Amino acid sequence: MSGHGAPATRAVDSSGLRVAVVAASWHETVMDGLLDGAARACADHGVTPDVLRVPGSFELPVAAQACAQAGYDAIVALGVVIRGGTPHFDYVCSAATDGLNRVALDHTVPVGFGLLTCDDDAQALDRAGLEGSHEDKGYEAAAAALATAHVVRAVRAGAPAPVG
Ligand code: DLZ
């Protein structure tokens, strides 16, 4: 899967939304890029997120769940998992992915998926929104969570969802 085909996004004022960023701590340089991208997206949407750090990507779902239970309107999950020589990669990736999806559906809260699952450091750096990167997955994940939060809010209010 590549970034080819990604939609153009339009920043909508989100100043009324409570937004949490939950971020793992492995692979510091890439994480710095993802966090910076998420912060830029939130700033473009007029919102300041609360940022919570967890040790690894395996811990992202429980932190996201705590945020959902605390009433956040949108959650952005950021992490980087690099494939190693054992099946550990697959367990961490699927636990994080399944767990985040479960939180989103159980709580009807958008969870932006900013979890990079890469074969090597070069792939991760290319998606981190750093100077020289081709993609900015932290920004994308935050923008997606905020756009979806507006859709959820509009549906709950019985109003047509905003277009675009
Ligand atoms: C153990 C581990 C390994 C090997 N690799 C990564 C990684 O690339 N990215 C990441 O976010 N976390 C990694 N972890 C840590 C696990 O996610 C988790 O924090 C530990 O297994 C403790 O529960």
From TrEMBL:
- Provide the E.C. number(s) assigned to this enzyme: 2.5.1.78
Query: What chemistry does it catalyse, as a reaction equation?
Result: (2S)-2-hydroxy-3-oxobutyl phosphate + 5-amino-6-(D-ribitylamino)uracil = 6,7-dimethyl-8-(1-D-ribityl)lumazine + phosphate + 2 H2O + H(+)
Q: Where are the transmembrane segments?
A: none
Signal sequence coordinates: none
**What InterPro entries does the record point to?**
LS, LS/RS, LS/RS_sf
Q: Which residues bind 5-amino-6-(D-ribitylamino)uracil?
A: 26, 57-59, 80-82, 113
Question: Its Gene Ontology biological processes?
Answer: riboflavin biosynthetic process
Q: Which UniProt keywords apply?
A: Riboflavin biosynthesis, Transferase
Q: In which pathway does it act?
A: Cofactor biosynthesis; riboflavin biosynthesis; riboflavin from 2-hydroxy-3-oxobutyl phosphate and 5-amino-6-(D-ribitylamino)uracil: step 1/2
One of its Pfam families is DMRL_synthase
Domain of life, per UniProt, equals Bacteria
* Protein residues bound to (2S)-2-hydroxy-3-oxobutyl phosphate: 85-86, 127
GO molecular function annotations of the record: 6,7-dimethyl-8-ribityllumazine synthase activity
Query: Where are the active-site residues found?
Result: 88
Family named by the database record: Belongs to the DMRL synthase family.
Describe the task this protein carries out: Catalyzes the formation of 6,7-dimethyl-8-ribityllumazine by condensation of 5-amino-6-(D-ribitylamino)uracil with 3,4-dihydroxy-2-butanone 4-phosphate. This is the penultimate step in the biosynthesis of riboflavin.
Protein's recorded name: 6,7-dimethyl-8-ribityllumazine synthase
Instruction: Say which species the protein is native to.
Output: Isoptericola dokdonensis DS-3
